Each structure stands twice: as structure tokens, then as C-alpha cells.
Amino acid sequence: MCGQAKTGKTAFSVRRLDASDVDLLMELTALFAAEFEDAASYASSPPRKDYLADLLRDAGFIALVATSENRIIGGLVAYTLRKFEQDRSEVYVYDLAVAFHRRREGVATHLIQTLKPVARELGAWVIFVQADYGDTPAIALYESVGVREEVLHFDIPVS
Predict the structure, then answer these.
(1) Domain-by-domain residue ranges, the chain?
(2) pTM
């Protein structure tokens, strides 16, 4: 799955990572750590390379990267959730970020547009994503491509 786009700055391309792209997934994780300002979650205990390769082999795991001049400028990670009530799936965008210096160029929108055919191929009927209250740019992006729902989110500790 590949796609190219040209924006006000430099052209960029978007593609899905596969098991040979472990180093790119690690680079994407570093981008998430920087853009979310959350090194504790993204850099304090990195997984082994074989774990990441196995994850990238899983058809239900989707990692897309936007690159320009051989550098990652954005990306998203999503998971396929197989449903039980019907023979279909949903795709959950877990993380999406664009490098600060490349925002407002359509990179995030292009990542989402690239995800759509991947989701369809995996039998998904919808893509869903969460945004934090106060994250105005993310909320505006998601409202431009989807329908807003007001929901509550709960984290339930397992230990």
C-alpha cells in the first residue's frame, strides 16, 4: 500500500510497513515520543526487534509512515478489532503524529486516506480514533474526515 502527495513544501509518500521495516517502526516510535512529549511511554522500555518484526507480520497490526527525503515526517499505528456480532471488523487508530515542522500540509489526512483501503481489505466497516479534550488540531482533523461521537474512556488496571 503506497501513496504519494505533494504539498506546499516537499512531496512525501505514505506506505505500510512490513516485517522488514523494524528500524522504520523504531524511528516512528521515536517520532511519537518527541511529538507527544512522552518519552516515558515510548522510549523507556523499547521492545526487542524480533517482537516488532512479529508485530509487523500480523495482518491486524497496521503501521503507516509518511516519508520525505528518506526521513519519516509522520505516521500512524492502528489495530484491527474483529467483531463477534457480525462478520466484520473495526480499525482503531491508536497513534497518529506528524513532525511539528511538517504539520498543516495534509500529511495526517493523507495517512488516514491511505488507511481506508487497508481497512476495507481487512474487512473493516469503520475506522475509529480517540482525541483528548483540548487537542484542537486533532479534533479538527478527525471532524474533517469522520463523525464525532461523545464517549467516555476508562482505563482498568490489570494488576
Answers:
(1) 2-145
(2) 0.88
Q: Which CATH superfamily is domain 2-145 in?
A: Gcn5-related N-acetyltransferase (GNAT) (3.40.630.30)
Q: Is the pLDDT of residue 8 over 70?
A: no
Secondary structure (DSSP) of the chain:
-EEEE--SS--EEEEE--TT-HHHHHHHHHHHHHHTT-HHHHTSSPPPHHHHHHHHH-TTEEEEEEEETTEEEEEEEEEEEE-SSSS-EEEEEEEEEE-GGGTTSSHHHHHHHHHHHHHHHTTEEEEEE---TT-HHHHHHHHHHS-------------
Mean predicted lDDT score pLDDT of the chain: 90
Q: With bands split at pLDDT 50, 70 and 90, how would you rate the model's confidence at 110?
A: very high
Task: Say how far apart CA 87 and CA 94 lie, in whole Å.
Answer: 22
Phi, psi of 144 (to 5 degrees): -75, -20
**pLDDT tens-digit map of 40-76:** 999 999 999 999 999 999 999 999 999 999 999 999 9
> Are 13 and 2 a contacting pair, CB within 8 Å?
yes
